[in-house]
Recover the amino acids of this structure.
């Protein structure tokens, strides 16, 4: 299970709300630490579920959709991982 502070950091990462260095640190760790990558994937799945259920506040929803459009050229609704599954 994720530590609360770790999960908050991962959520901020997935929503594009970290500095470039913080993003690099998370990505470096994800490439070298399989359980950490699994935590990222689990948190990402939770975010997608929350989005689909309409659980985001307006600005969180916009932030999530904007980031998803950047990750998905076609701009379809979020229904799968935002790219991490490609490296696991």
């Amino acid at each position: 299970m994720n530590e609360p502070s770790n999960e908050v950091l991962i959520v901020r990462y997935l929503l594009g709300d970290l500095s470039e260095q913080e993003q690099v640190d998370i990505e470096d760790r994800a490439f070298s630490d399989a359980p950490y990558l699994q935590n990222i994937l689990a948190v990402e799945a939770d975010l997608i579920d929350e989005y689909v259920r309409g659980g985001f506040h307006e600005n969180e929803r916009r932030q999530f959709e904007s980031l998803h459009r950047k990750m998905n050229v076609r701009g379809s609704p979020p229904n799968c991982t935002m790219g991490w599954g490609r490296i696991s």
The chain has four helices and no strands. The chain has one domain: 4-82. The longest helix spans residues 34-52.
